Structure formats: structure tokens, C-alpha cells
């Protein structure tokens, strides 16, 4: 099972009394250190869930409503205007049958008995004015609703993007990229569909039914009683639909997310898929996800296949009852023909929005499930938070200290036990050791991608947790084995280390690491678009560009985590020549399996199981009989 599947999901909804045991447990886990296995129940980081209890569903809805409320708060004035417009426009639409009834029962007899056309022209004119006004207000309402929905979506998209950027590395290492993409695409699309059309159906449908019912009762209370009786089976039908649809619609969101996640991860890792001939296994696995999605949607269609006919049956039965009762009353002289026609129209129209409301509930359930997931991501808090009172560090010297540091990714597995280390300013140290010895973990703590579970990491005597993040990022730069290049030109990627850098500065940085020659050979030189993930340059060239990006940033502490692993021998020699020049007067930490890279270090630390087992200059350790001497001898023999 993957790490993502093992990490339990997270919920941060508040419980009774303003606290929540789920939130308290997650907070306690973070306070104890960067342990990723905080036990929670409501599906943020783990596998997509659909088996929520009633209490969990209630908390999810409360959390989603709180998010929606915060999005709508800046739009109060427009929402009030929208409400006034929709009320007036709906009232104008409902007034039509009543005007027709008055025309038949009053204006028409005046024409026939008294040859008085004024009432007839008056009712026709009123009907036209009301119809035009209703159409204009409906158009205005549609525009207002669209602007409000787009404003909410704009705010929500920005929140998701900016918040996920701020979240710590620990979150991104446990929450798959496919799920993040699903939050930003299909989940936001579900909310968009609800806001663009679903809310129109809800607001207009509810108001239309209420106004229609009121008009019918005012026109003929007896017919209103018949309508009231029909509400009983309608209520049971809607309750049945709600009970069954909540589970089914959530299942469609879950299965849809699984399809997207599998597709994204397959396309992202297509090289590994093809290298290990995983196509057939992916076909079967993706086929199962698609089948689950098809089955989930089929159940939804079957639900509507029952709901729609029963709804039509109730509407037709109610219309028949109103007409029969009204017919007997016309014979008895207690009801006018025009009034019966209006009552029949109202009875028929009363059930028209019910089907639209059911469709709204479809969109609402999808959007609600999407909002649950998005609100869960937005309530995630960085495990490496910014300091409350940041300490400025405008001029760092580069001295780094690990004071009684202990670190664990999981509570039951300590990676660095009681670790102490002093790196003087300007010293270059090399970390070597077997895989899993703790080298990269040490580097991540130094770059403050993680905070220690215990103890502190200090830069110039100041705890990294207290330093202003901007100053710390300027002072410490880390280059990893994954040399990520963003879409854009070569120059743009190098200048990422120093926004606003001049072309001369960019060229000097490239020359310093030995990248200038291959850049000049590209089709457009420094203006060549490297394409997504650096598709137009080789892995070694990408690494050289990442070096240039780091060097132009001119940090006081430079961390190279297996950064030369992708370089061939000639490129590595060029980089080493550049390193010897650029690491002068700079604190540097080099993690490398290639011992040729270690030669430029002032000091070598050999790590095993999170502890330093050897510490000395490269020459002194090579001359000894310890672990580094053995590694060096094996490396030398491999070159023969």
C-alpha cells in the first residue's frame, strides 16, 4: 500500500463547544513534530471515501457552509439586490393566470353585457406590461447571478491555489498530485455548474412554488386545500429522493476523483509505465475505476427514473382533482369559469419546478461533495508555520548549528536521534553514507522544509523557526536531484533565483557552472523555451540550469542534495570547477554518492542510521581504515 493510502484523512471541522477531537489530535501531532500519521476520519489526504457516518456528514456540511459563507460575505450588497430582483420577477411571472381569470370573469362579461372594452384593454395591457417587466427582470437576475457566481469561483480558485502553495512539503509528499488537480478541476467545475445554473433553479423554483401556492389559495381556498393534500405524497417522494441521492451522488464524486487521479498519475509517470511495461495493468486498473464510475452514474439515472415518473403522476393527479372539484363547484355556482382555469393553470405549474429542484439537488450533491474536499484542503495548516514574530536576518554569515535535534517522519520511527552538528560559516562539508542514513533529512531540516521534532536548527545562532521566511529563503538555497524547470525561456528559469536579474548576470551564472556552451547551442540560446519539465534539454543540462539558478541567488548557505547525480563525467568536471569558485566564502553542504564530488569539501561527515560515525577532512579519512576509506577504495576500484 502506498504512503498516500496509509495516511489517514484529515478533518478540521469544529465540534461541540468550539473544539473537535479530530482537530485537537492533528494539532497535538503537529505540536509534537512533523509526524504525518495524525489519525483523522474525514478524508483529505487518504483514499477518497464515501462511507461517512451521520455525524461526519453533519460536520462536513457545516464546514462547507462556513466556507461558502466566507466566500459570499464580500458580496452581501449584490446578493440583496439579487434577492429583490428575483422576488419581483417571479411575482410578475405568477401573476399571469390571475390576470387571465379576472379578464374572463370580469372584463369579458363587461364587453358582452355593456359593450365596455376598457376593462378588457386594461387587463391585456397589464398582462403585457407584467410579462415584459418579468422578462427584463429575469434577464437582469441572470446577469447578476452570473457575476456573483464568477466572483465566488474566482475567489475560491485563488484560495485553493495560494493555500496549496503555502502548505509545507510534508503535505505535498502525502497528498497525491492527482488529488490536488482533481480539487482544482473537476471539483471546482461541479461548484461552477451549481452556481451558474443550479442556484437559479433553486431560487426561482422555490419562489415560484411558494408564490403559485399563495396565488392559488387566495384565488380559491378550496382548491388550495386539494393542493395541500397533494403535498403529502410529494414530501415523502422528496425525502426518499434526498435519502438515496446523498449516498449515490457522493459515490459519483469519489469514483470520478479516482478516475482523474489514476489518469494524472499514469500520464505523469508515463516513462516508468512504458519502461516497466505497466500498460496492461494500468488498463485493467483504469477499467475498474471507469466501471465503478459507470455503475455509480447508472444508479443515479435509475434514481431519477423512479423520481420523475412519480412526480409527474402526483402532478397529474392533483390537476385532475382540482378540475373535478372545481367542475362540480361551477355547476353549483360557487366558482367562476375563469377562476377554475386559473386554478388549473396554477395547479399544473406548481409541480413544474419540482423536477428542476430535483436536478438542482443532483448538482447540489455533486457540488457539496466537492466543497467538502476543497474545504478540507483549505483547512490544512502548514506543518512548518511562519513565525508569529519573525526575526530579520538581512546579512547572514552562514554558520549552521544542529542543537540536540531529533526528527521523525512517523512517531514510531526516529530518523535523526539526538543529533548535534556545528558547521562554521564558509565551510564546505560533504555528507556521505548508505541510502537511508539520514543525509537528505538533515538537508531538509537545514532548508526548513521540515521542523525538528525536538531541539533546534540555527542559522547564525537564530532558530530557523524564528527567522523571517524571506530572509531565510535568501540565505539558504537547496538544489535537489529533481531539477525542475518551468515553462518559459532558459533565461527565465535561471533568473528565478534572482527576479529582475540582468542578462549579463544570467550569463555569468551560466558560465560559472559550465552551462553557457550548451545554452548557446540551443535554437534560440538563452531565449529557448525549455517547455514543460525541461523537455527540450537533457537531464544533465536541466541540472546545470538549476545550479545556475541557485548560484545567481547568491545564498550564504548552499545545499546540494544528490545534485550531480544526473551529470555525465565531463559535465560533472565543469560543475566542480564552477563549484570551487562559487563555494568560496559560502557555507555549503554537499550530499553525493559520487566521491569525486566530495573531493572539493573541507570536511566529510559519514552518516549511518542518523548518526555521524566519521568526521574529518577527505585526506584524513581516506588515509584511515574507517567507513569512508572503504567507500573510497571501492569507488577507486570501480574506475579501473
From TrEMBL:
SUPFAM superfamilies tied to this protein: ABC transporter transmembrane region, P-loop containing nucleoside triphosphate hydrolases
Annotated membrane topology: Multi-pass membrane protein
Membrane-traversing stretches: 79-104, 124-149, 202-219, 225-241, 300-324
Subcellular location: Cell membrane
Recorded GO MF terms: ATP binding
Region (Disordered): 1-22
ABC transmembrane type-1 domain mapped to chain residues: 80-366
Keyword terms, alphabetized: ATP-binding, Membrane, Nucleotide-binding, Transmembrane, Transmembrane helix
Top-rank taxon, per record: Bacteria
Alphabetical list of Gene3D superfamilies matching this protein: ABC transporter type 1, transmembrane domain (1.20.1560.10), P-loop containing nucleotide triphosphate hydrolases (3.40.50.300)
SMART domains: AAA
Domain spans labelled ABC transporter: 400-634
Protein name from the UniProt record: ABC transporter ATP-binding protein
Organism: Curtobacterium caseinilyticum
